[in-house]
Amino acid sequence: MNTPNHYILTWQCPDNTGVLAKVSQSLFEHGAFITETSQYSDPYTETFFSRIAFDDRNLTVSAGEFIEALDDLAKPLTMSYKLRNKADIPKVIIAVSKDDHCLVSLLTKWKSGVLPINIVAVVSNHQTCQSLANWHGVPFHHLPITADTKAQQETQILTLMKETKADLLVLARYMQILSDDLCQQLAGRAINIHHSFLPSFKGARPYHQAHERGVKVIGATAHYVTANLDEGPIIAQEVKPINHTFTIEQMVHMGHDLEATALSHAVRIHAEQRVCLNGDKTVILT
Amino acid sequence: MNTPNHYILTWQCPDNTGVLAKVSQSLFEHGAFITETSQYSDPYTETFFSRIAFDDRNLTVSAGEFIEALDDLAKPLTMSYKLRNKADIPKVIIAVSKDDHCLVSLLTKWKSGVLPINIVAVVSNHQTCQSLANWHGVPFHHLPITADTKAQQETQILTLMKETKADLLVLARYMQILSDDLCQQLAGRAINIHHSFLPSFKGARPYHQAHERGVKVIGATAHYVTANLDEGPIIAQEVKPINHTFTIEQMVHMGHDLEATALSHAVRIHAEQRVCLNGDKTVILT
Amino acid sequence: MNTPNHYILTWQCPDNTGVLAKVSQSLFEHGAFITETSQYSDPYTETFFSRIAFDDRNLTVSAGEFIEALDDLAKPLTMSYKLRNKADIPKVIIAVSKDDHCLVSLLTKWKSGVLPINIVAVVSNHQTCQSLANWHGVPFHHLPITADTKAQQETQILTLMKETKADLLVLARYMQILSDDLCQQLAGRAINIHHSFLPSFKGARPYHQAHERGVKVIGATAHYVTANLDEGPIIAQEVKPINHTFTIEQMVHMGHDLEATALSHAVRIHAEQRVCLNGDKTVILT
Amino acid sequence: MNTPNHYILTWQCPDNTGVLAKVSQSLFEHGAFITETSQYSDPYTETFFSRIAFDDRNLTVSAGEFIEALDDLAKPLTMSYKLRNKADIPKVIIAVSKDDHCLVSLLTKWKSGVLPINIVAVVSNHQTCQSLANWHGVPFHHLPITADTKAQQETQILTLMKETKADLLVLARYMQILSDDLCQQLAGRAINIHHSFLPSFKGARPYHQAHERGVKVIGATAHYVTANLDEGPIIAQEVKPINHTFTIEQMVHMGHDLEATALSHAVRIHAEQRVCLNGDKTVILT
After folding, report:
1. Looking at the complex, does the CB of residue B241 fall below 8 Å from at least one CB of chain D?
2. Is residue B1 domain-resident?
3. Whose CA is closest to C53, among C36, C67, C70, C38?
4. Overall number of domains in chain D
5. Is C286's CB within 8 Å of A100's CB?
């Protein structure tokens, strides 16, 4: 084996004695060469979360046998895990409406190698971002939506995800509310950016709400999509001080950077398998 | 006149043409020596806000005549103003329950000369902070409260404010909700610290709410007290990133610093007459 | 006059009595309709800075006469001023090397109308960003540079600025050090982004320096270019907490957003004539 | 055993295969009930850092035998470790000059149970803080210092540390520079607060330096003391945006909160054995 394969193992289970010992011992016995480890034991839910990166330079068994051993280990520990060859980066579809600042950020970071994802399509209910997507060599799908065609349009998105084998749908200022059904089908696989520091200012026009309330700090929140609007598990939040001189327009403009930063950060750590769901919350294993 | 008197003039009025010209011209004509000016013209409410600090080293009229001229100017401009000799620092009463971190911060900053206020009393529904207040030489009033005695206790607070000629009531983690009546009587003269970045997590146990929601940023908000709980005009907000490893206790502890910082900042800028009410919001003239 | 012209007047002078009164009185007398005012009186340098936005809907004189009156006012006050029709937005040339994140940010914000500038050219010592500039419809000039051709290349930049009547050169991660001579010719007209919170980590590879030092916060600084490397007046700084797990690469990646945010903010407020030079420092009139 | 004893084990060693497995296996075999684990593998120094909190409710051996097993494990791994009963909280001496804001913060947090330390003495070259220390029931030692008596005064501090069995010296705005010799004797056992975001503005009057440079962000840095002034490993940094209107005095006042926050945070995580030295840097195991 000349060039080692790199793997990412993320797992969680009830926090019983010896959990970490058993897993790390198993990895050790099979010759996994660990390069990164991160754990968290949640005292509230008594759940153990762990992310271990390793390579197979010294692996004493085949990949298949390794997974079998992992399965044997997982069952008695009631452990759920995700093991991935680091080279198999997630396939991502980005949904967008008219504002392109989050899309630009994702495409630029992806192109420059910062985001370990593969952007396989951009979908939009408008055509505004078509040439931008195309310039980056990404297929663009114009999927207009009306009250009558909502179910049909969502089916098109799902079909596209299946066809492209997409692992993740990123709502990069996509101004449509997903149906409960779609939310459930994409549980843990759809990330949205909301332009406020949630739970403040859910719903429409959050900067207008923030201006109305007179807050001294604005923010943006990247979160997993759930059927409860803007209530999904929070992955990342960015905030910034403002003052009374900020017009709504200035808040919107300054907010663009907060949104792009929070969203691309959330997508990166999701793609690196650093985000674990812990009920309605997230554990970020850095 | 050997040592000049310093004055702070804060005023607001409908934003008509020439407002700034008329006021600054009037100050100039009477020989006011301006040391600080700050203005804001709110395009939403079409209101003009201004704070001008000046001294009387070159004043060509008496203080009384100066005020007369100001009154003459104010009427046609529908201008409301507050003129104060800078040396007449506001008298402040601090209300507190058991937690002393905000009280400590205010007393310490006051003693070291950072806060241009005169703390004339500490009132509390508990006795926990008595020795702290006394050590700083501040009279402590134990005003216990029950459902039955609430009206009476609030009367005691108001009486104390009158007796001490207090200009401001600071709720420094005072865990009682003021009655609507008291809120109205103290409109613009009572500042509260709430331990969340409002409007998120109003009401009781905001850190517990924040933990439950899984936010990645916590905060504290200093605001004027109004009859709508935690809905008053925001003066200052402090925020800080957290992560999933923070227990509720750690959030509480880290929050102490945010609360003390936001509250003492709000009290300072209020005392320096830098805070103007603009409907349900504030304009901070720095 | 159907649609009013909007003007921005930014001025500074020694802080003598009546300065604000005289200027606002003059504007008032000539019928200037003021929409924004911001002042600052620096107690250290005893200089008065002011920015006034107004329109000519009620102007009682011609624009030419208005400027004459301003000149008459300026001389006795030793006042320097810049008056601009708001519609005459500054022409900007962006210099870039290989990294495109700051260029992308400026082009995207410009295209979406957030930045009140006119980007007339992109210059680069590499060809990496050519297609990006062209896609945005901006002329791209490849100006390679060697030790031998540095003077000649800088002349090409200056010539281009003259030909395009550019008001501002923005160094958007342009990895060449400008000669002292060019710095002086562009004093107050060239903005650079440095990828550290200056004055920490001047010069080459600041993220490597930051990693070496083990700081817990990284940053980016937008500043005017001067002959003293990374010592020019600071316009804007962005910072962000990090921890020991950040590799240099992660710091570089996270830094991209800080740099783009700080630079585009600096360019915006410069273009809005909100930045005044105060010796080696800046006054930002918001 | 009715109430379990809680232990904190912090260790580091060269990052060889199986390190985590061996240690966690050993803990598991001896019945340690793990409640917190945090690891970091530094790819630059190839060092493994770990902090494990556990209790002895299921421990199958005596504490003495457990330590023997740990010693046996440590040697072949070239591992250094610190094992502490959590109840044996560190004894701390605080050194202070005239400014009391950091001392107040430490004493208040300590009294309210936030800081797991035992403050055994306050030493000062002035008498300003005597009554404050005494009010908190902490012995105060006035140790004046002159150029001639510096060596002798430092000996007094060291003697006091020995007599009180102090583990940590906290310089809470102590305005004396420790001798190289004392720095070396207290390596890793002395924490200083510097009132700038290091490495900017080392040495005297950092807020004056910051004002002179015109930075848009100020900060405070808590770090271990080393013989190179203000060059020691950084534990925590706090920063805050400012603008041109801030006078030096306002920067000083606002800085007080940054300093107190950074220092008390650093003392807390040091006391919880979360801070590891990694050359000239720190690893914080949260």
Report:
1. no
2. no
3. C36
4. 2
5. no
Going by C-alpha positions, the residue among D120, D132, D201 that lies closest to residue D166 is: D120
Instruction: Please give the order of strands across the beta sheet that includes A118-124.
Output: A140-142, A118-124, A91-96, A168-171, A190-194, A217-224, A234-241
- D15 within domain boundaries: yes
How many residues appear in chain D?
A: 286
> Do C201 and C252 fall into the same domain?
yes
Which of A34, A52, A85 marks a domain boundary?
A: A85
Count of all residues that appear for chain A in the document: 286
Q: Give me the domain span that covers residue A76.
A: 6-85
Q: Render the burial of B180-206: b for 16+ CB within 10 Å, e for the rest.
A: eebbeebeeebbbbbbbbbbbbeeeeb
Alpha-carbon span A207 to A223, nearest angstrom = 18
The H or E element containing residue D117 is none
Using CB atoms within 10 A of its CB, is residue B76 exposed (0-12), middle (13-18) or buried (19+)? exposed
Q: What residues of A are in contact with residue C286 (Cβ under 8 Å)?
A: 243, 245
Residue C128: its pLDDT value, please? Answer: 97
Query: Is residue A230 annotated as part of the catalytic site, yes or no?
Result: yes
A281 CB within 8 Å of a chain C CB:
no
CATH number at residue B157: 3.40.50.170
Cβ-Cβ contacts under 8 Å, A198 against chain B: 200, 213, 215
**How many residues comprise chain C?**
286
Out of C18, C50, C85, pick the residue that ends a domain: C85
How far D235 CA lies from chain B's nearest CA (Å)? 16
Chains in contact with A, where contact means 3 or more Cβ–Cβ distances below 8 Å, are B, C, D
ipTM, 2 decimals? 0.95
Which pLDDT tens digit goes with each residue over D134-183?
999 999 999 999 999 999 999 999 999 999 999 999 999 999 999 999 99
- B253 CB neighbours in chain D (<8 A) are 109, 114
Summarised one tens digit per residue, pLDDT across range A51-72 is 999 999 999 999 889 999 999 9
Q: Return residues 179-238 of A near C (CB < 8 Å).
A: none
